[in-house]
Amino acid sequence: MASPMADDALLTAEDLHLSFGPTPALSSASLRVHAGEVLALMGPSGSGKSTLLHCLAGILSPDSGRVRFDGHDLSAMSDARRSALRRTEFGFVFQFGQLVPELSCLENVALPLRLAGVGRRQAQRSAAEWLDRLEVADVAGKRPGQASGGQGQRVAVARALVTRPRVIFADEPTGALDSLNGERVMRLFTAAAQQTGAAVVLVTHEARVAAYSDREAVVRDGRVREQEYVR
Amino acid sequence: MRAGRWGGELALGVRLSVAGRSGWARLAMISVGVGLGVAMLLIAATIPSLVAARDARLAARAVVAAEPVPRGADTLLTAAVDSHYRDRTIHGRLVRPEGARAPLPPGVTRWPAPGEMVASPALAQLLTAEEGALLRGRWGARVVGTIGAPGLAGPGEYAFYLGSDRLTEDSATRIRSFGTRDADEGIAAILLLLGAVGLVVLLLPVAVFLATAVRFGGEARDRQLAALRLVGADAAMTRRIAAGETLAGALLGLVAGGLLFLVAGLLAARFVPADLSFYLADLRPAPALAALVVVLVPVAAVLVTVSSLRRVLVEPLGVVRRGGDRRRRLWWRLILPVTGLGLLAPMFSGGSGLTDGFAYQVMAGVAALLIGVALLLPWLVAAAVRRLGGGGVAWQLAVRRLQLDSGTAVRAVSGIAVSVAAAIAVQGLLVAVQAQYTQETGRDTGRFQVVVLPHAGTQERWSASLSTASGVRAADSVAQVTATPARSAAQAAGTRLKVGDCAVLRQLAALDACADGDTFVVAGPNAAVPRAGSAYTLGEPGERAPGWTLPASARTVPAVRGDLPQAGTTLLVTPAALRGTRPDLSFFDLYVGLDPADPDALDRLRNAAAQVDPTAQVMLIQTRTVEETLVGIRQGLLVGATALLLLIGASMLVNIVEQLRERRRLLAVLVAFGTPRATLAGSVLYQMAIPVLLGLSLAVVTGAGLAAILQATASAPIRFDWLGIGATSGAAALVILLTTTASLPLLWRLTKPGGLRSE
Description:
Shape of chain B: elongated
Radius of gyration of chain B: 34 Å
Radius of gyration of chain A: 17 Å
Order of helices and strands of chain A: EEEHEEHEHHHEHEHEE
Structural class of chain A: alpha/beta
Oligomer: heterodimer
Strand content of chain A: 25-35%
Strand order of the largest sheet of chain A: 6-7-8-3-9-10
Number of strands of chain B: 21
Largest sheet of chain B: 10 strands, mixed
Number of helices of chain A: 7
C-alpha cells in the first residue's frame, strides 16, 4: 500500500480555504490520495469533510489553495472540462443514492456511459454486468422507487463504478442503511473498487464503515488534523 | 360534532398554508394564479353590464324621427354633424331650440346659443390642446359647457352639441324628446355566434389555468401531509387539511382577483381607444355571474385538490404517487367530445334560422368539444410516450419522466391546446364571416380619394370653397336629377340621371372609353334596360320640367360598388349629352382629390366643407368595406387571446420552476457526475415539447374540424385558413420556447454543484 507522504499521489489538495458567507468550511486543508487506496474522511457533523470531498471532486472551487488530479490543476480547468473529468475519471456515491427516479436501475447505471458517448446497447450491457457483480441484477428493470434502500445503494455503487473511474467519491454511502445492509454495500463496494484499481475517498462518521479503508484522515474545523493507516 | 371536527381540520389547513417560508410561497403562488383567473372571469362577467350601460346612454340621447312633429315651445330642430379628426371619430349635433321647453339631451344642462358649443370633456380638451389646432376652426364655435357622463358613451368620447340659427325644418329633424326604448338595434346572428364562441374560447383556458393554479406546490404540500400522517392524521383528515389549505389560497385568490380586476379596469379605462372608453362606474360585474365566480372558484379549487390526492398515497413515511403504472382510460374521455359533436351536428344544415336557443346550443357544443381536448390530451400523451424510446440522454430523461408522470406537463399544456383549438376554430369562422361582411368595392382612388355629400350650398360656392383649401388637388361634381320616362309608368320607379364629366363618372361605373357627349346606362339587377330613344322628363314632372331623350349611342356598363343604388336604373350623362337641356342640378356630390404628401389635407377639406355646410358628409372612398362589428369582435378576441397566452405562459413557467425546485438535489447530483447542463436543458425542453407537440396536433385537428362545423353553421363554404393555423400554432410554440428559456437561469442556478450541500 502506498505511503501517505509518497510523491506519486493521484489527487492532492494543498492549503484549501473555503467559506460559505461568513462561515468558514475549510481552513488550510491539505490531503493526498493515492491510486488504489481507500481513504476514509472522518469527523463530526459540520467539520467540513463533505466540503473537502466536493473540492477534491471539482464540484466546488476553493476560495484559495489548489486541487491537482494526475498533475492537472482543477481550479485552472473550465467548468466543461471539470464536468468531463467527473464524467470519465471520477465516480460518485451519495447517502441516498440519488438515482434518477424515472429511469430503471439498469438505465441509471448506464447513464454515465451514455453521457460519455457510449452507445445504448453497449452501455446497458456493461451496466448489467456491474449490477450482477453487485448482486442486484434482479432489480435491473425496476425503477429505484421499487427497490429496497440497500439495493438502491448498490445500484448507485454500480453507477459509480461503471465507467471504471480512477477515483470514487462516496459521501456517507451507508448513512441511510441498517448495519447489515451497510456492511454488505461496503464489502461489495470496496471489493469492486479494488478490482478496478480505483481510489476511494469515503466520507463517513461511522467507525465500522471507516474500517473498510486503508487510511483514515480526521477533519476538524475545516482542517485535516490526523492521517493514519488502519491496515 | 363531526362538522366541528371537520371545521377544525379545515382551519388547520388554513393555518398550515401560512406556516413557514415554503407555506407562504405556495399560498402566494396559488393566490396569484387563482387571482389572475378570477380577474379574467370578472372581466368577462363585466362585459354584459358594461355594454348595457353604454347602450343605455346611447339610447337615451338618440334622435328618432318618427311621425311629423308640429312646431311648439317644447320642440327642437336637430341634425347630425358627425365628423372625423385624424383617427378620431367625433359625434356632433346641430341644435336649434324652438321654444323655452325644448328638450335637453342627457348630460346637458342648457342649450348653446348659435355659435356656441357644449362639448364632451375629451373634445373640449382636444380643442384647447396643440394637437387639436387644426380642428379649432372647423365649426368656429366657443365652448360654453361640457356634456356630463349621462350623455356620453364613455369618458373618451368626442361629442358636441352646436347651436345653430340656420337649421330649418327641411334640413333637420324636429323632436319633442331624446331617446328611444330600443337600446339594442340588434346584431347579426352570425356575429352573435362569433362573439359567443369567442367568449367560450377565452374562458375555457382560464378554467384550465385555475385548475392548474390550485395544484401549485402540490408536492411540497404532500410531504407536509405525510408529516401529519406520522403524528396521527388519517387519510380523510389529510384530505380535509389539504382542502383547507387550498381554500385559503382560493379565498386569497378571490381577493387578489378582485384587486387585479380593479387595477385592470383602471388601466383599461386609461388606455383603451376613445371609441371603446367606459366609465369606472360601469365596471360592475353582473351580480349573478360575480356570485357564480365567488362560489364556484373556491369549490372548484377544493374539488381539484381532493381529486389530485386520489392519485397520491400519503403515508406516514412518505408520499407514493400511483399515477405511473395506471393506464389512462379512453372511453369516458370521449363522452364530452362526442356530446359536443352531437350538439353541433344539426348545424350542418346552416344557420339561417338562428335563434337564442341555437346560440346556446352552439356554445354548449363548442365548450364540450374544447373541454374534450383537455380531457383527451392526458390519454394521448400517455399513449404516445409509452411507445417512445431511443434517443440521447436528454431525450431519455424526458421520455422516462413523462412515462412516469405526464400529468404535470399535460396540465400545463392543456390550457394552450384548448386555446389553440379554439383560436383555430374562431379564425376559421372569422374567415367565413369576413368573406360575407367584406366587400371589394372595385373603386379607383387614383384621382379622387374623398366624396363630399352636401345638404346645402350651390356648386359654385362649394367649388370656390374647396379650391382654396390647402392640399386639395382636384374637385369635381356629379349632379343628380330624377328621370321620369314619358311613356311607361312601369319604368318610373328608381330611374335617375347623373351628370358629370368622364373623370367623375368613372367613380360610378366601369367605363372603357368616355368622351364628352357620351351617355351610359347602369341597370340594377331586376331593372329593364331602357331602349335608345326613350324619352324622359328631368326633375319633378310639371310644365317647366325639361324633356330629354336617351341617345342611340348610349352604352350599357356595369356599376362600381359604392355610390350607385343597387335598385333601378341610372343614366350617366356627360354635360354635352344634355344638348342644351337645363334641368335643376342643385343636388350634387363632390369628388375630391387630395395631395398624398400632405397628411392634414383631409382635415383641411373637412374644415372647408363644414364652413359651407356643417351637415355635409365627408367620406373616404374605400376600396374595401368591412363590417365594423366584425372589426370590434376581432379586436376583442385579439386582446383576449394575447392576455390568455400570457396567462398560460406564466402558468407554464411556474410549473417548470416548481418542478425544477422539487428536483434540485437530483439535478445537482446529475451535474456532479458530469452531466452537461445542455443535456439537462434539453431534457426540460423535451419534457415540454413532447406534450406540446401532441397537444398542438390534437388542437389543430379539433380546431380545424370545429372551424368547418362553424363555417357550415354560417352557411359559408368550408375552407381552412392554413396561414392562420400556422401562425396560431407558431405563437403557441413560441410561448413554450420562451417559457423554457425563461426557466434556464433557474436551472443553471439549481444545478450548481453547491446544490449538493445539505448543511
